[in-house]
Amino acid sequence: MTETPHTGRTALYFGSFNPPHNGHIAIGRHAVESGYADRVIYVVSPQSPFKSLEELAPETDRLAMLSMAVDECGMSGFATVSDMEFSMPRPSYTFDTVKRLKEDNPKAELALMIGADNVAGFDRWHRAEELKRLLDDILVYPRRGYSDPLPSWCRPMTGAPLFDVSSTELRERLRSQGEVARLLPRSVENYIREKGLYAAHL
What we know:
By secondary structure, this protein is α/β, with parallel strands linked by helices. Helix content is 31%, strand content 15%.
């Protein structure tokens, strides 16, 4: 489904979500519960300019898993999942998506959520300075190994949870049949195993 902002401040959470995990859900919940936003839109990126296509599960599967995670975790009242980039040129650039949202909703207050690992390289993003001007806020959540002071154009999400396992590590655990029960929503884990995603033997 393609979601558009309504009234209040909307936090945009872009990602491959490959797979979506409890950390993605916890950050979105924290954004709303701590007053950084009134609602969250998770934007599933079919093809990031910074990532290889090799290990990406099909975009429709990633969209389905993320929708399941939002529902299972009781966030459907304030979080939605968007496929709007599926119909846009690839690779997906955040600037293009935010620009389209602003054009469709000129009065929308949009905040972008990024991990601390993205801050240093943000100025290399496509049309980064224009993107900053389009946004009302850039919120930074913690990532393991990144604790440098933040530049003035963004602000930290104080008290945000630190999820210590990445999607890459989760895929490795799934391949080796390692423990993932406390890292993925149950519906997502079941979907991965039923569909045989990330490893042929699952």
